[in-house]
Specification:
globular, alpha/beta, 20% strand, 7 strands, 273 residues
């Protein structure tokens, strides 16, 4: 796997054992674990609808979602992580839980996907906050379409730009550029472009839900970590935490200005394909 950009690699190293997924504070939820597993709950609903036996998670990290699924239903669950560090931590957890036959974790470069060979006949492919880091996101959409069985579903939960960057003024362009750089969001694209690419790959949008009002734009823990890291030994890159704090502030501004959306998309492969 090609090395991740320095800041993102350091970010994963510094946060091993912590979930990096977006928290969704939807109505009726009161606990942090519920916020983290909001998308997982929706995924389980789709698994039950399709009686899914095969699920692939793109950007699985430590396999948290896959283990969550394995807790509540039978199936064959596979995942591809953007980080070898997270994958190794996940494999240790899978072995500890004795799930080697039901949960499989791999690591791959999400920018260089020409060698990817996704497992075929998947009932559901799921991705949360991962493809937004990939320059090859639209290529991956095509690979997913081929891997899905007829009437299989691709469930995506991540950030999108509300409008084409060509229509933004200089100030808004700068904000988007700074946010993209802060978190290495090379796959942050306009929602309409994503939906068009999905349609061209034979995937029909059956659900498009705006979750922007429920995402967390401020996490005091990140600011605590940033302050602690400033007092840490010189071999600790405290800029990772400071960048994360900066990114959260930028996200809040972008959402407030209507430039950014956090969406749940459910795309279905037609029965004739």
């Amino acid at each position: 796997m090609q090395a991740l950009p320095l800041d993102l690699t350091a970010f994963y190293n510094a946060n091993r054992g912590r979930s990096l997924r977006q928290q969704v504070k939807a109505p009726g939820l009161t606990k942090k674990r519920q916020f983290l597993h909001y998308a997982d709950g929706l995924l389980i609903g789709h698994c039950n609808q399709l009686e899914a036996r095969k699920v692939l998670d793109l950007g699985c990290g430590r396999g948290e979602t896959l283990n969550y699924l394995a807790d509540v239903r039978d199936g064959q669950y596979s995942g591809i992580s953007i980080s070898q560090i997270e994958q190794q931590l996940g494999l240790e957890e899978v072995e500890k839980l004795n799930r080697q036959l039901t949960v499989r974790l791999f690591a791959a470069d999400f920018d260089q996907v020409s060698t990817w060979r996704l497992f075929p006949s998947q009932d559901i492919v799921f991705s949360q906050d991962a493809l937004v880091h990939s320059r090859a996101a639209f290529v991956i959409v095509g690979l997913v379409a081929k891997a899905l069985r007829p009437e299989g579903r691709f469930i995506v939960c991540q950030e999108f730009l509300s409008s084409s960057e060509l229509t933004l003024d200089a100030k808004d362009m700068l904000l988007v550029s700074q946010y993209r750089q802060a978190l290495d969001l090379t796959g942050l694209v306009q929602l309409d472009e994503w939906l068009a690419a999905s349609g061209q790959s034979g995937l029909q949008t059956i659900e498009n839900q705006d979750l922007s009002a429920y995402v967390q734009n401020f996490d005091p823990l990140w600011y605590v970590y940033a302050l602690i890291s400033l007092c840490a030994p010189k071999n600790i890159d405290h800029s990772v935490f400071l960048r994360r704090c900066r990114a959260l502030a930028l996200r809040k501004t972008l959402l407030k200005r209507g430039l950014l959306q956090y969406r749940l998309l459910v795309l279905e492969k037609s029965s004739g394909q």
